Amino acid sequence: MTIAYENLARPEDLLGYRWPAPALPASDSLISTRQLVKVIGTTMENQSLVLKGMDLDIHRGEFVSIVGASGSGKSTLLYLLGGLDRPTHGEIYISGLPLSGMNDATLTAVRNQTIGFVFQFHFLLPEFTALENVMMPMLKMGHRTKREATEHANQLLGQVGLGNKTHRRTTDLSGGEQQRVAIARALANDPDVLLADEPTGNLDKANSQNVAHIFEEIASDGDRTILMVTHDPHMAERAFRVITLDDGRIVGDHKNPHPSPTNTASRKS
Ligand SMILES: Nc1ncnc2c1ncn2[C@@H]1O[C@H](COP(=O)(O)OP(=O)(O)O)[C@@H](O)[C@H]1O
Ligand SMILES: [Mg+2]
């Protein structure tokens, strides 16, 4: 579908103000946004302003949850940060590099190398084993031999507690196990950032806690950054920073001073 941009209202018209050119992000941030705006819709009548100018700095090693009512823009924000979609206005920086300056091929390469995605639905390949599903992104990337990919996939599946089920077809695994395979797959190419959109949306409480625990483990090495969109307040509490969205704006951004007890207990000091 071709969007007729000349027919769209400018974001500043919708917002009622103009803003200066994006400022450079804080130098030590891994992901930053400046004045991030997303307009959805192809005509003047149906377009809507989904993100209304967001400034955000995420640092390496942070475990952040993003909360907010349905329709507040959480998924839109996550997809923009992951380079799956382009903003209408404003800038996204990854390690200080503006994404707007990258063509689609470069953006795809950066995305494949730096970002892992976990969705509410696991999107595993049903005809393949857990091991094969986790190996797939590595073989696609071509940085590892088949033997190295096998070894790494085994290690990742061990990390998510599935070391004894690596040769099961994914259809023979439970919902919770499938989501853990999806997490292992998201980690396959050693991404700097894990983006998760409602990763426990289809899971019961015990399995959700399992996923939260795995995220804590991943975040605890201090190198990997996690951004997790969630509806579930118990999940959000496990993160060390909680960002709240409302109607396309950031309305809350605070450190979580009292992470849940299991969280504290499970973290390596
Ligand atoms: N492809 C789309 N077409 C039309 N509207 C959309 C599209 N994607 C998102 N929206 C609208 O943008 C707003 C934010 O959506 P979304 O980011 O999915 O919110 P959340 O993930 O917080 O529930 C909602 O009002 C939604 O209806
Ligand atoms: Mg959503």
- Spatially, the strands of the biggest sheet line up as 6-7-8-3-9-10
How many distinct beta strands?
10
- Which structural class do you get from the secondary structure elements? alpha/beta
Q: Identify the CATH class.
A: Alpha Beta
Strand content: 15-25%
Order of helices and strands: HEEEHEEHEHHHEHEHEEH
Number of domains: 1
Average pLDDT for all residues: 87
Outline type = globular
The end-to-end span amounts to 51 Å
Under CATH, the topology can be stated as Rossmann fold
Account of the protein in words:
By secondary structure, the chain is an alpha/beta fold. The protein has a single domain (29-255), classed as 3-Layer(aba) Sandwich (Rossmann fold). The chain is built from nine helices and ten strands. The strands form two sheets. It has a six-stranded mixed beta sheet. A four-stranded antiparallel beta sheet has the order 2-1-4-5. Residues 1-5 and 263-269 have low confidence and may be disordered. The structure holds adenosine-5'-diphosphate (ADP) and magnesium ion. The site of adenosine-5'-diphosphate has 10 residues, from helix 2. Magnesium ion (MG) binds at residues 74-75.
Give a brief outline of the structure.
This protein is of the alpha/beta class.
Features:
single chain; 9 helices; binds magnesium ion; Rossmann fold; four-stranded antiparallel beta sheet; 269 residues; alpha/beta
How do the strands and helices of this protein lay out in sequence?
Elements: H1 11-15, E1 29-40, E2 48-59, E3 63-68, H2 74-81, E4 89-94, E5 97-98, H3 104-114, E6 115-118, H4 130-141, H5 146-159, H6 175-186, E7 193-197, H7 205-220, E8 225-229, H8 233-236, E9 241-246, E10 249-255, H9 261-266
Parallel strand pairs: 3-8, 3-9, 6-7, 7-8
Antiparallel strand pairs: 1-2, 1-4, 4-5, 9-10
Helix pairs in contact: 4-5, 4-6, 5-6, 6-7
The chain binds adenosine-5'-diphosphate and magnesium ion.
